[in-house]
Design a protein that fits this description.
Helix content: 25-40%
Mean pLDDT: 95
Shape: globular
Radius of gyration: 18 Å
Number of helices: 9
Distance between the termini: 23 Å
Strand order of the largest sheet: 1-7-8-10-9
Largest sheet: 5 strands, antiparallel
Length: 250
């Protein structure tokens, strides 16, 4: 997720930590201020470091039943401000609805201009048919890391996608509301799209079919990044749409 507010104060960070601590299955076990540091989770220590302005990033980890690792920046908001959490594939399926609920709560705090929450199924490399190709494409669209997103804009949607501020304006509320998907207008002013109702219950083939329908519809907006499928049938590269190129030139 790309926050539209600065996560540089005790209150916002405290609210984020509250969200993780509110469910025993998501409560962090370790934390650090870089990828190399991992110490026992101490909420008070994190808040103290925030108040001292002595750290620029917070990493949270959990090494129990629901495993994850992730981070968010705690400096003044910039285009590279980014919140990202990767949950291990061993997470029990019964926890998937709670995982999406956690995502909504995080979004409610940081109000992402753009963000994706996605269930990743392993794709087949190299692809041998359109379904396999689209599966790889969907996975890449659902992981909008800064090195790809900032240059190319939204590559597409994931299982659940959040929009607000300038990216919401680029698509237009009316266009998003008419997508063949589950649309929600959120209390904090953003919108979300689920490509299918209760995606945690969906078969991957059904999810992929609906994803393609939504992508075909949103592609007409001239905002989605333009894909280019590798001749090796191993990957997809992207280039910015005219709308995003205009955004970059401002």
């Amino acid at each position: 997720m790309y926050p539209s507010i600065s996560i540089d104060n005790e209150e916002t960070v405290s609210n984020l930590l509250d969200i993780f601590e509110s469910n025993d299955k998501f409560s962090p076990t370790h934390w650090g201020n870089s990828e190399q540091i991992k110490v026992e989770y101490d909420r008070n220590e994190i808040i103290e470091k925030i108040s001292e302005k002595s750290i620029s990033e917070v990493f949270l980890h959990r090494d129990r039943t629901v495993k994850y690792t992730g981070s968010f920046k705690v400096n003044n908001m910039s285009p590279r401000s980014y919140l990202n959490f990767d949950f291990h594939k061993s997470m029990p399926k019964k926890m998937w609805p709670a995982f999406f609920e956690l995502s909504d709560k995080i979004a409610g705090i940081i109000k992402p201009s753009f963000g994706v929450t996605h269930i990743f199924w392993p794709p087949i490399y190299p692809w041998s048919n359109d379904n396999d190709r689209n599966h790889i494409w969907m996975n890449l669209c659902s992981y909008p890391v800064p090195v790809k997103f900032l240059q190319n804009g939204p590559m597409g949607v994931g299982t659940r996608t959040y929009f607000s501020r300038h990216i919401l304006e680029m698509f237009g509320k009316s266009l998003l509301k008419n997508a063949t998907a589950v649309i929600s207008e959120l209390d904090w002013g953003g919108m979300s799209i689920d490509i299918i109702e209760k995606p945690w219950d969906a078969d991957v083939s059904v999810l992929l079919d609906n994803w393609l329908k939504v992508m075909n519809y949103l592609g007409a907006s001239d905002v989605i990044a333009i894909p280019s499928f590798d001749k090796s049938r191993m990957g997809v590269t992207f280039s910015p749409s005219p709308s995003w190129q205009n955004h970059l030139n401002r």
